[in-house]
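Provenance

Sequences were taken from public entries as deposited. Structures were produced by running a predictor on each sequence independently, with no templates supplied. The record for GntR family transcriptional regulator from Streptomyces sp. R41 is shown for reference.
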Amino acid sequence: MNSQPTRKPNAREIAARIRGEIAAGTFGPGDRLPGARAYAKKLGVALMTVQNAYTQLQEEGLVEGRAGSGTYVCDPAPGEQAPREAALRLTELQAQVARVSAELAGLVERIKQLEAAVGPTEGKPGA
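Predicted structure for GntR family transcriptional regulator:
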């Protein structure tokens, strides 16, 4: 039996989840996202956390808030990129950034190992 409490998602993770749902077609243009209060309660997070996630998605151009009505997936104007394609591209970009970050971390570790093997270079000619 797992007695550890489940970690609650932060705003970035909630935005990524909804972005993935838009990319998968779960939410399409014109669809209303879950109400922030109810969604916050469902996830066990503060209302502000969900509002921050929705704000992030709004800044990305995926959703729009309508006063007194809720948050909706944008319905693109003719010639504009649809939210689903934008969400797919953002999701792919995030995966690429994660991959590059992991590779960079590996390179940093290799450099540290090389420096440790070579020893300090301060004060040596040509260094």
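The radius of gyration is 22 Å.
The first strand starts at residue 63 and ends at 66.
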